[in-house]
């Protein structure tokens, strides 16, 4: 039941975005989507940088 809902949801979103009458709404949604992707990538890179920064300290603490 959850699987079928997950499969049907993106198609319904795509149908909403594909309507030519909602070009402004579509552009706004796409801009929001890009912004969220950018924020997500930035957060992931910051997390990776923090993890890589902590890694030597963790290794030292394990060795000591």
How would you characterize the overall build of this protein?
- It is a single chain.
- The chain is mostly helical and 64 residues long.
- It has one domain (2-63).
- Helix content is 91%, strand content 0%.
- The protein is built from 2 helices and no strands.
- It has helices at 2-18, 23-63.
The structural class is mainly alpha
Radius of gyration: 20 Å
SSE sequence, one letter per element: HH
Gap between N and C termini: 51 Å
Mean pLDDT figure: 70
Strand portion: under 5%
Number of strands: 0
- Count of folded domains: 1
Provide the helix percentage.
over 70%
* Low-pLDDT segments: 1-8
Q: Major beta sheet, specifics?
A: none
Q: Number of helical segments?
A: 2
* General shape: rod-shaped
Transmembrane segments: 46-63
Keywords: Membrane, Transmembrane, Transmembrane helix
Q: Can you summarize this structure?
A:
By secondary structure, the protein is an all-alpha fold. Helix content is 91%, strand content 0%.
What characteristics describe this protein?
64 residues, mainly alpha, disordered N terminus
Q: How are the SSEs placed, and which strands pair?
A:
Elements: H1 2-18, H2 23-63
Keywords: Membrane, Transmembrane, Transmembrane helix
